[in-house]
Amino acid sequence: MAVPALWPWGVHLLMSLLSLGSGLDTLEVCPSLDIRSEVTELRRLENCSVVEGHLQILLMFAATGEDFRGLSFPRLTQVTDYLLLFRVYGLESLRDLFPNLTVIRGTRLFLGYALIIFEMPHLRDVGLPSLGAVLRGAVRVEKNQELCHLSTIDWGLLQPAPGTNHIVGNKLGEECADVCPGVLGAAGEPCSRTTFSGRTDYRCWTSSHCQKVCPCPRGMACTAGGDCCHSECLGGCSQPEDPRACVACRHLYFQGVCLRACPPGTYQYESWRCVTAELCAHLREVPGLATTFGIYEGSCLAQCPPGFTRNGSSIFCHKCEGLCPKECKVGTKTIDSVQATQDLVGCTHVEGNLILNLRQGYNLEPELQRNLGLVETITGFLKIKHSFALVTLGFFKNLKLIRGDSMVDGNYTLYVLDNQNLQQLGSWVTAGLTIPVGKIYFAFNPRLCLEHIYQLEEVTGTRGRQSKAEINPRTNGDRAACQTRTLRFVFNLTEEDRILLRWERYEPLEARDLLSFIVYYKES
């Protein structure tokens, strides 16, 4: 029997399939992993076939190249969220560490990215020869001073939208010897050529590893010999047209088979596999903690969506009458990004304190409202400081009570400090926000007019509790047009090169309230 010819990258794929077995029968699923400081911590990946969540490897300052010698995790084929590498010293390539990593699904992203390689001082090439798909999210490769072989990667073969990638600040192309196998005297068969970003070139991950380019309809995987896999396969397969022989699944996995949809009696979980109702009921988002997993519209979810809740002993999500009550114990939670609000989705009763410190971002309100918009009660205090990204607090659209069980500095239930762009308090006045104990404090909010704060005092019942210094008229609203006055012009003269205007003297209550006059004009 003749042995089929292998494509230039086929030897590597064949070895990968031999090391993995012929299919998906023995998947070992691991939760998100944050591996830092010690190279020995990487042993936590030992038996993982799939990291269901994210994989972060970072801050290994004392590591050397010798520490990574012989270290390999050939079983790992998938990461369902994102892969992040940051300041791992001594690591020169990922080719031995993750020789069979095939898919990064990007179900959840890190600031919009599914693959992040940042400030890796000794990394010489990415070296992920089995990587066949980054299903969602962009790639960020930045500030890696020794990193080459970036120009030889066709990201368009891996991603649906490679145009959003951010690949900057790496070793200059003219300083790299980016030669693919079989080119300019390099050993091996020549790699395939493709056109990416207007440039046709040989495609490889390293000087000895070609990038996979399948001779199949775009997006389809293939065997080491170049035969097309089943349409539900992703990244490769051991047998053509066999959904049981896939390295990874394009859509869903169940009992060793890749499927387009989950079979009856099973439910989609984490966007890549099917589980039974019994398994869904016993899943734990955080090991050791009680679970509220529910089934909703054919999916097994870590929690029922807003407006739905589990009804008694049933695992299925049912629609609530009005708002679904959901208590969330947070202690003191600092929210410094939109991502930090995701575990408060659906919460109506926050037991603890919230501190908002959103220094950067753009148009955050829609996402904040999705995550915080159902909160009705905060049992402790609410502190909003240095949140330059906030224009309004309207995302707390259902907040009715800040109870003040604990207070800022033992005095303040609501504390709003140094929010340079804050202009509106949202619906707190019309919704009737109540603050039964403690004071409110507002300072250095230059675009928030005092009238909004005074209205809030009335509604919350806090008028008279705080002094004038605690709602400072000098530092709140001092850069906003909070009061309008009509100036009466008494004289104007138009000449060829100038206009002379004169108006009645404006006398504010205090002279220092008037800084200057600014006249805007438009040429006719």
UniProtKB/TrEMBL annotation:
InterPro entries: Furin-like_Cys-rich_dom, Furin_repeat, Growth_fac_rcpt_cys_sf, Rcpt_L-dom, Rcpt_L-dom_sf. SUPFAM superfamilies: Growth factor receptor domain, L domain-like. It is found in: Membrane. It is a single-pass type I membrane protein. One of its GO terms (molecular function) is ATP binding. Residues 1-23 form the signal peptide. GO terms for cellular component: membrane. Keywords: ATP-binding, Cleavage on pair of basic residues, Glycoprotein, Kinase, Membrane, Nucleotide-binding, Phosphoprotein, Receptor, Signal, Transferase, Transmembrane, Transmembrane helix, Tyrosine-protein kinase. It is an enzyme of class 2 (transferase). Pfam families: Furin-like (PF00757), Recep_L_domain (PF01030). It catalyses: L-tyrosyl-[protein] + ATP = O-phospho-L-tyrosyl-[protein] + ADP + H(+). Its EC number is 2.7.10.1. Residues 47-157, 346-455 form the Receptor L-domain domain. Residues 174-329 form the Furin-like cysteine-rich domain. The keyword Transmembrane applies. This is receptor protein-tyrosine kinase. The gene is Insrr.
